[in-house]
Automatic annotation (TrEMBL):
GO cellular component: sulfurtransferase complex
SUPFAM superfamilies (alphabetical): DsrEFH-like
Transmembrane segments: none
Name this protein carries in UniProt: Sulfurtransferase complex subunit TusB
Native source species: Salinivibrio kushneri
Amino acid sequence: MLHLVKHSPYSRQALAQCLDYAQPNSTIVLLSDAVVAGVAGSEWANRLFTETHAVYLLSDDVIARGLGDKLHPSAELIDMRQLVDLSADHVTQMTW
């Protein structure tokens, strides 16, 4: 399943709910304000990058927020084309 998380984990519970719901081997994409969860050393990055999920961050949103050099070493950036490809590859999707 593909999970698209759009809201900052510091303002809403979307990411927490996603992580509680997501099955192992799910794919999680952080976009919009949710990319702040990928900042190295944050409680969210520690939780995200030790789980059994594939986690991606939309590069345009990371750049727009000036977070490029602050991300967890395991953070993998994708562009919009790759996001479309992930969407096409996953029959089931959920937006948080």
